[in-house]
Amino acid sequence: MNTTRTEAERDGKSERSLHHSLNLTVIPNEACKQAQSSFELHVVSTNKGEQTSVLNIAKQIWPWVDYIHIREKQLSLQQHFKWARHMTDSGIPVSRIVINGANPLLAGDLCCGVHWSQDMLTKAELDMNVVRKRQHIRLGVSVHSIHEARIAVDFGADYLFFGHVYASRSKPDLHPRGVEALAEVCSGVDIPVIAIGGIQASSIQAVRLAGARGAAVISSVFQHENPAHAVRLIKQAAEQ
Predict the structure, then answer these.
(1) Lower Cβ count inside 10 Å, N or C end of the chain?
(2) pLDDT over threshold 70, residue 79
(3) Which residues form the Thiamine phosphate synthase/TenI domain (predicted)?
(4) What is the pLDDT of residue 217?
(5) What is the pLDDT at residue 170?
(6) Higher pLDDT residue, 227 or 174?
(7) Do 203 and 231 form a contact (C-beta atoms < 8 A)?
């Protein structure tokens, strides 16, 4: 018996049951057809389970960002979808919400994109061409080298996160990969590369010059005393 396939089928049944319990509708997501900014701004949740704090800040910042990622590794996928439901109930458009770890075929009406780790990509049993025919769901993949980037592109990723570029509070023990490594990935693939890791307003121009088509931030927004102001500074830097 193929253990991997058996586990995948079991996970798929569990996820379908989850969507039924949350009353999700598996339909093409029209909200995801919005045109992306020339330089995308992604804001990623803190991975600390701070739902109230994340929701309050998300309500402040969503008009100035392209995507808000729900990435809480210690929480179940069911909890990720509940966070998304709270966001949409609070007036945050579906077009801004990305759920990390979700199956694109079952993402329902609570998000316009899903984002995967390298580990998820290597275990995937999806045909992204089929996904695109059925859903308007954007798939992002985190990569750490040009080799991983090309694998993600071949799989059908719509964009990549590359990092961490600068020293990052979320990865204090790991040496940053730097702008040169970012430039190598940007020049080696033909889909948008989003720089992540230690990104501040002051570093936006550097990552743009390296070829990045966007930036993803965590602490520079969520740990700022005025998150909306922090986001506006980043957007202004990107537009210069």
Answers:
(1) N
(2) yes
(3) 51-221
(4) 97
(5) 67
(6) 227
(7) no
Hunting for tokens 């501040």 — which residue is that?
200
What is the distance, to the nearest Å, from the Cα of residue 187 to the centroid of all Cα atoms in its chain? Answer: 21
With CA atoms as reference, report the closest residue to 24 among 69, 88, 70.
Answer: 88
Distance, in Å, from the CA atom of 206 to the CA atom of 5, rounded to the nearest integer, reads 43
Q: What mean pLDDT comes out for the span 126-130?
A: 80
- State the residue for tokens 């579906």: 94
CA pair distance 12, 18, nearest whole angstrom: 10
Domain 39-239 of CATH type 3.40.30.10? no
**Confidence label for 114 from pLDDT (cuts 50, 70 and 90):** very high
Query: Which residues are 69's β-sheet partners?
Result: 44, 98
Q: At 233, which amino acid appears?
A: L
Most confident of 21-30, 71-80, 117-126: 71-80
Q: How far apart are CA 107 and CA 102, in angstroms?
A: 6
Give the number of other Cβ atoms within 10 Å of residue 32's Cβ: 17
Quote the pTM value: 0.84
Residue ranges per structural domain of the chain:
39-239
Please answer whether residues 185 and 212 qualify as being in contact, where contact means their C-beta atoms are separated by less than 8 angstroms: no
Q: What is the DSSP string of 197-222?
A: SS--GGGHHHHHHTT-SEEEESHHHH
